[in-house]
Amino acid sequence: MDRRVLIPRPESELLVERGLQHVDGLSPLIHPVRVLDMCTGSGCVGIALAYHRPGIEVTLADKSPEALCVASTNSRSLLGRQLETVETDLFDALPQRRFHLIVANPPYLAHTWFQEAAEQVKQEPQLALLGGGLDGLDLIRRLVQQAPSHLEPDGALMIECDGRQQETVALLLEKLGFTDVVAFDDLAGIGRIVVGRLACTKN
What we know:
203 residues; alpha/beta; Rossmann fold; 7 helices; 33% helix; 23% strand; transferase; methyltransferase; S-adenosyl-L-methionine; DNA_methylase_N6_adenine_CS
């Protein structure tokens, strides 16, 4: 771990926990289960999922080549193998790719929140922190809009955000057709992730 990536927070363990639950709930006929860790940073979430469920196929994606370098190193060190890494601005480099689960800990801080943050936070890469827009949700809006085209039926999208953004993010998912939208708190009782499922549709 170094200054090229955001230092992983304990709160992100919730993404791993919920991700594993979704994978375990999929049909045993689905093989391999394809998982995308978007805005992967150090790769901690995707690597943890691959560690606990070795049979799944995990792709680590990030806009930062420096972050992907760290993620690749961590993958080889912790798993003894190289997970697929993709340098991309969201799904730009992933055309036609579909996944059974997309997990994301994207940048979501509003600029005003960043200015008020502790000095330790300000030392981390701004690319990994600032989500864009007055509410910090510009990147998450793009993610939610694009994700349905990259999810298999009954696939899930799981997004980490600030507790102050949970309601807005949940509404975004519902507006884009996600069902079973649920917000979860972390161990400290603070709103942390929003989960939605892409329902099967009949042609």
